[in-house]
Amino acid sequence: MKTNVWISMIVKLMINISIVVCISSITNAQESVVSKKSKVSFTGRLHAQAQASNAEAADNMNNSFSIRRARLTAKFKNLTGTMEGKVQFDLGEGGYKLKDGYVELKFNSKYNVKLGQFKKPFSLWELTSSTKTMVIERGNKLLGSGWKSTNNIIVKDGLYAGRDIGLMMHGKMNKLKYSVGVFNGNGYNKKKDDDNGKLIGGRAVFSATKTLAVGAAFSNRTVSEYDSFIDTLKNGNSASFQAFGIDMDYGIKHKVSKNGLWVQAEFLTGANPNYSEEAKFMGLTFLASYNLKKGESGAIYSIRPALRIDYSQRNTDDDDTGSILLTPGLDIFFDEFNRLQINLDIVKPQMDGADTEMGIRFQLQMHI
């Protein structure tokens, strides 16, 4: 039985890699297909991982290989520039999922409308592409760990961040960028919207200088048939939950063609509907890296050491729900996007008597 499982996993892996390689050869690294009225470009990414953990709950699986992401993306743009679109599928982790699928009307730089499935405008760290992030995982993905980082809370517990289906207006006015939208509030890839409640969210970013941007975000999620923790006889079935955040982005960002510092920091707080009716979560995330460019001609393009510190509490009234996630890491770039990433994840629960958990993670990232 185990042999059959391994054979099945190997076959799936080979199929995923074959599809990515096939798309790469056909498109010749983002080659555009142009018709009389539109232009289509293709991209892809493959993130192959290996990891090991000492978490107690991972005793039966304390090491693993995985295809974390195997994404194929098609982007559409009409020649007048008034309409754009994107379709992205992920074949990673044994699945076949639509990640992004939307159409966008481009009126001008100030006013644009996007309709479909895409990321909600909440959390700088969540909105940073996985091709650019300073560490491998946004949240705590340590094998066997049950502790949630800030990113886990806002994406899984509250559904404030991450992908959803909805309508969003966004644009740029001088130094200010804004996004505001209404979403189903159920998360992404749902067959239907089975709840009349909606999620309304927005984010504004002010570019104070060429290297410093500060942002603020809000999210209000209404659930019309919520009965997990509230007194439905007294309050009815409807409930609303809010979350707020402030963030800062400083430095060269992902421009690894330069030497320099890149810092991201954000503070997020609000209600945690997945924990209890009264629970308020709090999270503080800090990331820093310094890129050292080696040269254009050598095998190594640049080296980027990085550090992530995340402190989170699922319930601010209960210290036992808090944890610290510390991730020192190193990126070795072979060009501006393709890299080897090495991370050490250390999870320190705030609960008395809870063991510190550790894990090592490697990822090879290929970008087409």
Strand percentage lies at over 45%
How does the major sheet shape up? 16 strands, antiparallel, barrel
Rounded radius of gyration (Å): 21 Å
Count of extended strands? 17
CATH class: Mainly Beta
End-to-end CA span: 36 Å
**Mean pLDDT over the residues:** 88
**Overall structural domain count:** 1
CATH-derived architecture? Beta Barrel
Strand order of the largest sheet: 2-3-4-5-6-7-8-9-10-11-12-13-14-15-16-17
CATH homologous superfamily (4th level) name = Porin
H/E topology pattern: HEEEEEEHHEEEEHEEEEEEE
Secondary-structure-based class equals: mainly beta
Query: Percent of residues in helical segments?
Result: 10-25%
Query: Unreliable stretches, pLDDT < 50, 5 or more residues?
Result: 5-29, 230-235
Please, how many helices?
Answer: 4
**What is the CATH topology classification name?**
Porin
- Shape verdict: globular
Secondary structure blueprint with pairings:
Layout: H1 2-27, E1 32-34, E2 38-53, E3 63-78, E4 83-90, E5 97-106, E6 112-119, H2 124-127, H3 150-157, E7 163-173, E8 176-183, E9 199-207, E10 212-223, H4 232-235, E11 239-251, E12 260-271, E13 280-293, E14 302-313, E15 322-333, E16 339-349, E17 357-367
Antiparallel strand pairs: 1-2, 2-3, 2-17, 3-4, 4-5, 5-6, 6-7, 7-8, 8-9, 9-10, 10-11, 11-12, 12-13, 13-14, 14-15, 15-16, 16-17
